[in-house]
Amino acid sequence: xxxxxxxxxxxxxxxxxxxxxxxxxxxxxxxxxxxxxxxxxxxxxxxxxxxxxxxxxxxxxxxxxxxxxxxxxxxxxxxxxxxxxxxxxxxxxxxxxxxxxxxxxxxxxxx
Length: 111
What we know:
This protein has helices spanning 8-39, 60-84, 95-105.
């Protein structure tokens, strides 16, 4: 029997889950950090109408702090799913057998 740590599906799933969690943390940190840095008043930084600096009519803090990380996440997801995720063999599909078993058991009273 295969040990859990020898199972390639489990190891690939763990590796991929860690990569996705790290990407999520990075995206959240960059979104919050950039939005705060560019869009919120802080001690020593007073923001006014001149600080909006719109790009395509969108305030700079939103364009860089939200849309930028979204675009980066979209590109990273495309790359990760297309080139890094493993396509593991999950075994035989038993759907037909299970459906047959369910139909056979449907008329019996189990209780």
